[in-house]
Write a structure and sequence with these properties.
single chain, alpha/beta, Aspartate Aminotransferase, domain 1, Aspartate Aminotransferase, domain 2, 2 domains, seven-stranded mixed beta sheet, three-stranded antiparallel beta sheet, globular
């Protein structure tokens, strides 16, 4: 079977596994606000799905997204989720021979999209104490070449959970402007950050902000997000979007309802997320060879270093999989540093994290005897 079919079949088994605890996808599993459920039920009951949505998205949703990020001079183009936004941006703005610069680790799919149009990809390592697990703008500046067309940063970083300081984002924006490059600021996890700064407020003319409803609102399976940019840039992107008949009307109704209750509902999600992170951080010293290099995390996930334990991340992920818990092996994010860590999602019910920690010593021992041919997603 082809590789993608094997991978898809394995993920299909996960999706169809009753009671699986999703601690590896950064997805938000906190129960949704009733207003979001009601909006979807009403959409289905009234059979609104017979019509196409507006090509750029419902006007109320577009306005709500722009208001949510606080960029009143910019505009939003609703997409089928953040990854579709990134696909569209890369395929519209990059050409063969261009250079796409990002970090290592990062979110992998934009690199695949850049390569698919013939662009080259340059990654700047940030994993390790020697880099303080973050991007030094001076290292970015040193990596710029005449071919640099796009700089992509996930901020907060997935999987590390570091977020750019105001000074860092100002420098990154300055570097992008000097290079005349597009700055793609993937802000998927910004709502979980202790502090966050938008590059578009500094470099509005060529910054593209990627917005997601998958994480803060928990709509990962509904696929709805947005591209936020200068209106003239958005005109270029709106000329031939992949979803030119509009994103799912049900998804947009859910997103619109989510924005209306965000101030009331999301603080509880954030509190649960941070308490779960703290539980893991406090428990790790009791397990030899494990540590959390970035704490507190600015995402809804944490990274656990396991290289000092002698346990391979794939084996630990497989061990937990046997117990109905999905965590993410580091190689999913980076082949260069993936042997050092696993990633665990924390916007989940507290009992999931308690079970994860209760099993941890036994799972470490189980991992030492696991066949690494075990399939993982």
């Amino acid at each position: 079977m082809k590789r993608f079919e094997t991978r898809n079949a394995h993920f299909d088994r996960l999706v169809n596994t009753p009671g699986l605890k999703w601690l590896g996808q950064n997805t938000n599993h906190i129960p949704a606000h009733p207003a979001v459920i009601d909006a979807m039920v009403a959409c289905a009951r009234d059979e609104q799905f017979h019509v196409y949505a507006p090509p750029a998205g419902l006007e109320a949703l577009r306005a709500g997204i722009v208001a949510d990020v606080g960029l009143p001079a910019q505009a939003a183009l609703v997409s089928d989720g953040a990854v579709a936004s990134l696909y569209h941006v890369c395929h519209t703005l990059l050409r063969a021979g261009d250079e796409f610069i990002t970090t290592d680790p990062t979110w992998n799919w934009p690199m695949a999209f850049a390569r698919s149009v013939g662009a080259t990809v340059t990654q700047i390592p940030i994993y390790g104490a020697e880099y303080n697990y973050r991007l030094d703008p001076a290292r970015l500046a040193a990596a710029i070449t005449p071919r640099t067309k796009m700089i992509y940063i996930v901020d907060p970083n997935n999987p590390l959970g570091v977020a750019c300081t105001k000074a860092e984002i100002e420098e990154v924006a300055k570097i992008a402007r000097t290079a005349g490059a597009w700055l793609v600021h993937d802000c998927t996890y910004r709502d979980f950050a202790h502090e966050h700064h938008l590059a578009a407020s500094i470099y509005p003319e060529r910054t593209i902000t990627i917005y997601s409803f998958s994480k803060w609102l928990g709509l990962a399976g509904l696929r709805v997000g947005a591209i936020i940019a200068d209106p003239e840039v958005l005109e270029q992107l709106a000329a031939a979007p992949p979803n030119n008949l509009g994103s799912s009307i049900l998804s947009q109704r859910a997103a619109l309802a989510g924005l209306a209750i965000k101030a009331e509902w999301f603080p509880q999600v954030l509190d649960i997320t941070r308490r779960n992170q703290a539980m893991i951080y406090e428990a790790l010293p009791r397990v030899e060879g494990l540590s959390m290099p970035v704490y507190p995390s600015n995402g809804n996930f944490i990274v656990i270093e396991c290289s000092a334990s002698g346990v391979q991340p794939e084996a630990l992920a497989a061990a937990y999989g046997e117990r109905g818990i999905m965590i993410r092996q580091g190689a999913y994010h980076t082949p260069n540093f993936g042997d050092r860590f696993v990633k665990v999602s924390t916007s989940v019910p507290q009992v999931w994290v308690e079970e994860f920690l209760e099993l941890l010593p036994a799972m470490m021992e189980r991992a030492r005897g696991i066949n690494l041919d075990t399939p993982l997603f």
